[in-house]
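fold-stage: in
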Amino acid sequence: MKRLILIFTLAVGLAFTTLVCAQIGGTAVYQLLNLPPSARSAALGGLVPGAWDDDPALVYHNPALANRNMNNQLSLNYSNYLADIRYGYLAFSHDLGKWGTPVIGMQYINYGTFIEANEYGDILGNFSAAEYSLNLSYSYSLDSLLSVGITIRPIYSVLERYTSWGLGSDFGIHYHSANNQFAFTLVARNFGTQLTTYATPDREKLPFEVITGINFKLKHAPFRLHFTARNLQQYNLRPASEVLPADATFMKKSGHNIILALDHLVAGVEFVPGNLLAIRIGYNFLRRTELRMAEYGGATGFSFGAGLNFGKIIIDYALASYHVSGLTHSISLHANLNKKTKS
């Protein structure tokens, strides 16, 4: 019966994705919600919604990932983003046994200091810009393999003298095998609305998206593979200028449709030869499509990282390429605050 519930829920979720419209590509507010919350996520392409682990930062992209292994776990992330932008994420989780697992997280992004001038070019001083979100997540296990979760996310944004409040929410369902060799997940992220607007009465949309993902560990090799499909609510993520003419050949249309499908894919692989070291590489197809130079793509869309496990402390690092001249650096600290190290 529980497996039937899983199949039914996934079917309803996938059907729902065909009915929902959403905006991407700069047409939604609070874009900090799309930033990776940890170095591990950044190294694996930007998001890892299906990894069943003990890191509370992973709950940011899927509340159903909160589980009893996260009891008294702390995650702290700092990222040196593009153009002197800095952002970070702090998360803590505590398991409540049969009552489920809550996770609390705080995210911020500081866009830096800007020169303020009037329409005549007169320098008036400086101003700053920043955004914050409080992430309150909760997961409940329907059985040992299937869990559901929800996140409530108040958001505050200040851009010079203009401020805005918003409220978002995520809903997720997650299944993993008994040996954690395979996992499947489905998430609807960033439902919600602007509660107060910056300067006009028109409310902007949140960056809503539907995500599904799988990950699996190879049976006889120390590799775990992650595949995520995002923005499932909208098939064509490219601008209208790239629409094929009606008289395009079958082969050209087929190739174009394959490219449109790949725009949704984020892929990553972790090499974990033992308990001490993890090496990661990721690839974000849409990031490369949107941000590569026409003449030279370089490593745009690729991301790399590594992690060191010292027992109660895990340190992760990630390098992600957003552009041939734009690299981001992330470092995370994951601490086990239990009195005894988990076996």
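fold-stage: in (second)
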Amino acid sequence: MRIKDKIHNLLHKNKYTLPILQGLGMIALVTAISVLSIHFLLGETISDYAEANPEIAYGREEIPDRETMEIPKAGEEAVPGTETVETAAMKEPADSPEQAGAESGEGELTDGVNNADASENETLGESTETADSGSVPEYNTSVMVHFYDPNIDPEGRYTYEPGFYSEPLSQEVRDYITGVSYAGTPDMVISYDDLEYVGLLYVDFNGLTQAGELICNKKISKDFLEIFSELYKSDYRIDSIYLVDNFGGDDTASMCADNTSCFNYRVVDGSSSLSKHAYGMAIDINPFYNPYIVFGAGEGGGDYISPAGSEIYVDRSASFPYKIDENDLCYKLFKAHGFKWGGDWNSCKDYQHFQKTP
């Protein structure tokens, strides 16, 4: 007798067997619908349920509570077992400066504003790896100057949420940046009072919570707090966020170190036009993995690519970590806040770059 016939005989041998099985199935379905309905009526989202049941959602007993966690001072651990700013891998600085060997063309013009920022000619601290290795140069982060301190409440500070705040530039910060990222000359079109210091938290490439800092135009400081808070909560990975002054104000050195930065009073390379970074209105995110490209402006008529060593990340159809594209959370958040993306430009591409015009 075939298996199908045996099952048929079993179900119909007793006239109550099939109705009982159907009833049990209906009870299970109603129970599942009821549980989901209760969560829905209570306003509980799937994310809320995951937070309340981490052993089911995440396979472990607990997850970090970012809202109530004790916020560290710079150099202290944010979450037990994480790496501190001072001890982060004790990365060694690269050896000697090298020339980039190419000058970029001017960026695409939109509404009378130069939308692209070329890198500097001098490339400081390039990796000792070969150019096609794709290896990010390492820097000694233990000696980086850091001003992040969420545990004080100076006059004028705005705290968006624990660990994320903005405030006017302190005298200590002013002294540190003057003559470096802040020219301090009488002809400057921006003043200390136009800028704000932003302290934030981020998740580094090792999955560890780190304290980061930016200087930006005060017109976009709240945008930054909202954006980076969402990136942090979403476990979005950023290699490092240090003031560009830690690299002598050299944008190329900062890019080679894959450092995310904002304010730097400089002109667009090869021109007398001020960069959007000079106004504190632009930011570069994970620049080593999201290079700046000027078509036909390189040696022998090839493309100019910066920073050096990032050539393998020019192909944006390829799949690799930390790539910013239209599907990337970073892209979506900055666009939602009214920023323009350098990846949308035509004569050049600046995949790391977001800028805003107030």
